[in-house]
Amino acid sequence: MRDVMKHLIRSPQGAVGLFILVVAALMVCGGAHIAPYDPESISILARYKAPSAEHWFGTDQLGRDIFSRVMVGARATIVLSLLATLMSMVTGAVIGTASAYLGGKTDEAIMRTMDAVMSIPSLLFALLIVSTLGQSSFNAVLAITIAFVPGMVRIARSVSLAARQQDYVSAAIARGEATHYIILREMLPNIVAPIIVEATIRVAFAIMLFATLSFLGLGAQPPEPEWGLMVSEARAYFFNAPWMMLIPGVAIALVAIGFNLLGDGLRDALNPRSH
Amino acid sequence: MCAMKGVNRRQFIAGSTILTGAAMLPWSGNVAAAVSSATDASGSPRKGGVLRISVDQAAGMLNPQQARVNPEYLLAELLYSGLTRLTQDMKAEADLAESWKASDDLTQWTFTLRKNLSFHDGSACTSADVVASLNAILDPKNASPGQHNIGPIKTVTAPDADTVVIGTDGPYADLPVMLAYPDAKIIPAAIAGGQPERLSKEAIGTGPFKLVSFEPERLIVVERNPHYYDPSRPHLDRVEVVVYPDAIAEGSALIAGDTDLMLSAASTEFARLSKSSGIVPLRVSSGQFLNVNMGCDTKPFNDVRVRQALALCVDRKATVDFVAEGYGTAGNDTPLNTAYPYYLNEPLKEPDYAKAKALLKDAGYPDGLDLTLIASDKPSTRTQLGIALREMAKPGGFRINVQTMAHSTYLDQVWKKGNFYVGFYNMQPTPDAVFSLLYTSTASWNETRWNNTEFDTAVKAARETADPAKRTELYGKAQKLMHDQVPSLIPAFFDLLAAGRDYVAGYQLHPRGAVFRLDHVWLTAKAPTRK
Amino acid sequence: MSDAVLAIENYSLDYLLPQSEPLQVLQDISLSVQRGEVVGLVGESGSGKTTLGWSVMRYMAANARERSGRILLAGEDLCQMSAPQLENLRGGKLGMIFQDPGASLNPTLTLGEQITEVLIRHRGLDARQALELGIQLLSHVELKNPAAMMKRYPHQVSGGEKQRVLIATAFACEPQCLIFDEPTTALDVISSAQILALFARLREETGVASLYISHDLALVSAVADRVCVLEKGHIVEQATARTLFLSPQHAYTQKLVAAVPDPAHRLTDATPVSAQPLLSLQNINIDYGRHGLLDRLLRRENGKTRAASDVSLTVHRGEIVGVVGESGSGKSSLAKALTGLVPFSGKVDFNGYNLSGRAEMDKDYRRRVQMIFQHPDASLNPRQRIGEIIARPLRLYGLPEGENEAQAVARLLEDVRLPASFARRFPHELSGGQKQRVAIARAFAHPPELVICDEITAALDVSVQATVIELLLELRRRYGTAYLFITHDLNLVRQIAHRVAVMYRGDLLEVLPGEAMAQHASHDYTKALLAAVHTPEKAITEHL
Amino acid sequence: MTASYLFKRFMLVIYTLLVVSLLVFGITQLLPADAAVTLLGQNATPQALAAVRARLGLNDPAWLQYWHWLRGVLHGDFGVSMRNGLPVAPTIMAALGRSLLLAVCALLLMLVVAIPLGIWAAVRRGKLADMLVSVLSYVGISFPEFVTATLLLLLFADVWQILPATGYVPLTEDFRGGISHLILPSVTVAMILVAHVSRMVRSEMVDVLQTDYIRAAHLKGLSRRRILWRHALRNGLLPTITIVALDVGYLLGGIVVVEEIFAIPGIGRELIVAVQARDLPTIQAGVLILAATYSIVNFLADLAYVFLDKRISYA
Fold it and tell me: pTM of the entire structure?
């Protein structure tokens, strides 16, 4: 683990990604304490204030302090995207590994069905699911999870298949090991690394998808300070108060960049060849 | 010229084709309700030209009797005609009906049609078509939005080819105005009786324009009807209705000159449009409002003190800023404002948190009250109001959780059923229309279930009289009751906003929001030529 | 030395490493190759032999730094030449042929294009002339139907044919000097012998000077006039092949020569006498692929491929039975079938067990029959520590009496001559030979009766291979274990096996005594195989 | 490549469409509120709802509705929109046409930009150019379309006013106008794809440039240009076909947002509106056609791959 960290920090991507995400993590944990104002309190006198010493990121159409909203909103945006990725990762890994292990017709049936589901654009799929479940942050998370599962299944299956063909698995089978031992102790540790790399990069997509759903009115709901929703609400005021939209938009992009960088850094750090 | 002034029941009520009333409307700033600022617009109308008008949502329903939203009302008005139509000051004027008169008891109305009317397919339009059309609207099977909005019609008969007689359920002074309802359009009897689905693909009306092409999500093109009953109109050769679902996109298109006129402009876009050169911003005070409906028959809103306490938390002027960017008027918890006749001008309610808290305590909520306010996502101002109310009501002891939901889900599960939700209504043609649509115990959308007998009696009495003085008194009483008892919180009215290029002449923004009269519009010589 | 075509003088080269000392790859190398001469360059992995080849070609890694020396081609210093000058030389006067002909040919271009582009580049021919000459060149390297060959893509021809095309390309522009980097390692024994014969003929005809790089001392000795032995970047000895084998001077050379498997030098005692076979296979068939639904719908032929057909074989207690054959002969499938990794049909009789399918292999059978794989990198889980890897069979089959797990692991490590501290390491911290020892320790955790060795030395250097073999033989002496020893290395198998089974395309051709294979061989394939192999004996007595 | 492979691959497309149609049908059955409610809006009365539901066939059991739908589709009839009573097929096809125009523009733009960038970065690996492309791709891949779109709108349509803001002009009506209306949406959609594909091209090219056969080509004395264009490019770009085909799925999703913002009446907008209006036949047909587009593109990509990569042969 320490080894991985060392490699990560040494690569430029890993270092920058880690830095961005540490800042993001600080916001997630302590955003509410950093925020100088109540992110939801409105003020008729402080509407549309441009960024200034008093309001670092300016204020919005209801006179709310955008810096405070961005700080507090980090939690909703990042934690929920992480949650969606995590859930899809676990589900995908279980299905994918099982599919690879079972093989044969079951594998074929599962994979062809996953392919079929993947042919629906994930945004559209998520949109349908949220429409069914009702628009809320949690349902958006659920929708992203479901939309991400086929991709995760595919990846998990391919790495499991690769792991399954390794001689150490053959050795375990030849030795007479129990199935659960082979899956849990021999295969899983080797599957986890590439899946974690993939999942890290997926978090970036989850953040963007979540923001997009919020933008379409299907994710977080006002007055939540979720970044995608903030962009969506701010769009109407774009020409009068562009900072309202630019700031949360850049925040989304930065965190997405952070996860992309970290994912690439991890890929290198976890690659046995680079050791 | 409007016949309802100085009225006596026996008086012959005649429509007029002359435009009136624009000057009587309340103005705000230097913004006009009509495009007329251009110098050469004062001249006489020029013939010809193509007008490109943008709308903010698809006009899915081509069938005029099924129209529900402004773009569909626009199409219905371009392609069809009704018996009457609404003037700028909410009076009825002649459309297919040349003139009309009421029986003494205001229960029977006789409409005389113009001569030689014809549909776009060349067939004649007669009283039989009118009868069939009105019956089609009233037929619950067709589920026309007009069913409950064209007055309490009991019978429709056609004694001869030019005459239609309508019997109402009880005296009803506003019938000609109600018949101007945008869905009350006349369609061929054969279609009304048998195959209304034909009208979702084609348009066979008597309107000033004929349908050329129909792509509901994108572009609808109509061209001048050479056989329109008024040979002087329309002035335009063609109108192209372009759909822009995004407000910024729609504004930018007008600024770029891709479009000539907007049917409506979002309040957030209005400042930008006003600043752009070559664009005339249009604004008119209207009775369109946002409210918060409370179920007056269920806890906690069955206690009038709770409703009054909530009303005392609201800074109404600030609300106008929050939800309408200041383009509106503050409300006093009645559905009427300066845009309506018989408006009762009471001093504006001011926030008073101490009093609100006291009222809540009296009502049995000394520790405040937890509420869930439901707001549909369309239009987004509903949510804005919800959030503003949530914050404004905090010091008064209300802890409001705002829950947004998809409009369709809201319609299915909350509307008329919920106890605390945000509503949004267009201006109605008459005070009676709005009262008896929303607040009387027999109202078709009795959302608040306030069911106040005193209020019901006043509204009914006003409906049955044509005497303005009496009406003023009765409607004043009704407004006072709502003001005091707050069945629904009505903090803000919206001005209607739009914008057009400076070469568009003759367009007037109508406070009702569903009347457009593009047959009066013409383009000055400055207008670019469109193919 | 002036008439040397290629002369390397005092050449030293380092690899710069981030955050550590430069790695000295080549130190003070001096050698020369005369016209028509073949100089062999022998060394184990990491000795720098391939790096030297690349240096001559002036195609070096970005972090390579030359410290000293010159490389002269016909008297001109290649180190001083400009890039365009070098480009003119490469592929023309100076060529190189690689280990894997499959990888050195561009898969998306026709063979023809890959020959003619060189002719166009270096001989200034137009496309039509180049095509004609190309066909001629291909027929010259004994390819059948050269015109058709020109139109083919690399995947459509065999490995031997690919190497012929590459040789034709290398010889196309009348080179002065060629570098061969293990040109036959990726080929099976018989085609590699043919390639070498072709090379000998072309060398004779053109008089090209050649530097022949290989890890196989016996092979190099057969090909080269002189052999340079490279150890850790130093040339430790230069001599003729014969001298090298008969009287190696340097200690390293001596070790290397000793490690070369020599069939004449048997490592095992006589056949153990045991009337009762430990393992007997009767009519074993192994099929791959499946008969899918679609195939049935379309009434197609069975889509299965047969990896082994009707194989019958016995292994006695304590006996070493070799299985030889080229890749695809089915020898590995046999190993997998016996360990239950692939399904088979037929009868397996193991010490009283009668098995007719892999489902019948119980824990006891699996304990008594162990397998060691070719690549220790792959057969040891990279995320488990050595201690855990070795302890696993102990947990599965039970600890030996009087020992706890840690003690047993330590003892096993000691048995395979590894320090007990290795238990805490991860596989990637070990060398290839060490890893294979761990795999052996795992197999002997609970001493088995039969160990199936699937090419276990193929990935190892020759000196390491020798110690691993030695270890195996010692364990056999201690536990009386029988081995089914699968390999493509005939020399090795003739050194240790009591009996040798020869497989060819799924068929078991014949089973011969290990000691006198050549005398008893009856099958043509076996004879060809034996003839193609280079033994130290041949290196001394004959020369190509 | 045999007929049987083709047949099998084709059956997969059919299976995909069947699964998609069942899935979408299942989801639409669960949608709260129905077309009748949205159709009638505030005018809904119990009688009116019943009348409309009967007219739309919403009272049938779900499996019967699905069967009617499926039977219709097999006869080439996608039903009638519940929103406006127009037949679904022509509306959807027209919308699809506009979306595909946008998609093709974005794809072309992407290919023209991403591939040279990727090759450039690979050839100049570790140099400034590589860094630059890398930074660009990180930025490009991390901006959601709606942010990119609004930024582009602000700059090009509002501040500089050199491109039309939004809307759609058919190329047949006004070619130049049509193209100029397509630029901003295409750039928006292409942004993420450019970032993604240039990264992929770079890494594939880096791999290819390290292969033995490229080394061999160098050692044959071939010119750098010939090695890059003749030897490396084809092998390096082959995997890009698959990546681009898979990205088509992302593209079709991204188009939904972009059409919403740029007011392009394509299939994405059509679908959003249909979902809001619970217009089941339009949802079904729209999703199905997107899934079919994706499947067919991937099918074609597989064929192209087989055609271009001489190594693969499907027995």
Answer: 0.82
CATH code for the domain in which residue B186 is found: 3.40.190.10
**Cβ <8 Å between A252 and D147:** yes
**Chain D partners of A271 at a C-beta cutoff of 8 Å?**
none
Within C152-216, residue ranges assigned H as helices are 159-171, 189-206
Q: Return the partners of chain B (3 or more C-beta pairs < 8 Å).
A: A, D
Contact yes or no for A167 and C373 at CB 8 A: yes
A165 Cβ contact list (under 8 Å, min separation 6): none
Q: How many domains does chain B have?
A: 2
C376, C439 contact by CB (below 8 A): yes
Tell me whether residues A127 and D256 touch, CB distance under 8 A.
yes
Predicted complex ipTM exceeds 0.90: no
Record the tokens describing residue D265, joined without a space: 């009446």
Compute CA B21 distance to the chain's CA centroid, rounded to the nearest angstrom: 17
Residue-by-residue pLDDT tens, chain C, 544 positions: 457 899 999 999 998 887 778 888 899 999 999 998 999 999 888 888 889 998 999 888 888 888 899 999 988 898 888 888 888 888 888 999 888 888 889 888 889 999 999 999 888 889 999 999 999 999 988 888 899 989 888 888 888 889 899 999 988 888 999 999 988 888 888 888 888 899 989 988 888 999 999 988 888 888 888 999 999 889 999 988 888 888 888 999 988 888 888 887 888 876 665 777 889 898 888 887 654 444 555 554 555 677 888 899 999 988 999 999 888 788 888 999 998 888 888 888 888 778 887 778 888 888 999 999 988 888 898 888 999 999 999 988 888 888 888 999 999 999 999 999 999 998 888 888 899 999 999 999 988 999 999 989 888 888 889 999 999 999 998 988 999 999 988 889 999 999 999 999 889 999 998 888 888 888 999 999 888 888 877 767 765 4
For residue B345, the Cα-to-chain-centroid distance in whole angstroms is 22
What are the start-end ranges of the H helices in B139-246?
A: 175-178, 189-193
CB contact under 8 A, B140 and D94: no
Distance from CA of A266 to the nearest CA of C (A): 17
Nearest C-alpha neighbor of D234 from the set C109, A242, A201: C109
pLDDT tens digit string along C188-213? 888 888 888 999 899 888 889 999 99
* Domain co-membership, B435 together with B509: no
Closest CB to D212 among C100, C121, C156 = C100
Per-residue CA distances from B227 to B17, B116, C322 (Å):
18, 10, 104
**C-alpha torsion sign, points C257, C259, C260, C262:** positive
Which residue type is seen at C196? L
Show the tokens assigned to B513: 């929001």
Which residue in C90, C103, C153 is closest to D220 by CB distance?
C90
A15 and D CB contact within 8 Å: no
Residue B404 near chain D (CB below 8 Å): no
Q: Searching chain D, which residue's CA lies closest to the CA of residue B248?
A: D261
Query: Does residue B163 have a pLDDT over 90?
Result: yes
If asked whether residues B443 and B375 sit together in one domain, one would say yes
Measured between alpha carbons, how far is B168 from B155 in angstroms, rounded to an integer? 7
* DSSP bridge pairs for A59: A65
Q: Which domains does chain D have, with CATH numbers?
A: 98-278 (1.10.3720.10)
Residue B321 located in a structural domain: yes
Candidates B270, B404, B405, B422, partner chain A, best to mutate (most A CBs within 10 A): B404
Q: Return d(Cα B520, Cα B236) in angstroms, integer.
A: 9
CA distances from C431 to C259, C308, C341, C460, D311 (A): 18, 34, 27, 10, 35
Which among C340, C366, C379 has CB closest to A168? Answer: C379
Q: How far apart are alpha carbons B47 and C30 in whole angstroms?
A: 100
Q: For residues B113 and B83, give the distance between their C-alpha atoms in angstroms, rounded to a whole number.
A: 8
Which residue segment(s) compose the domain that B167 sits in? Answer: 48-262+501-521
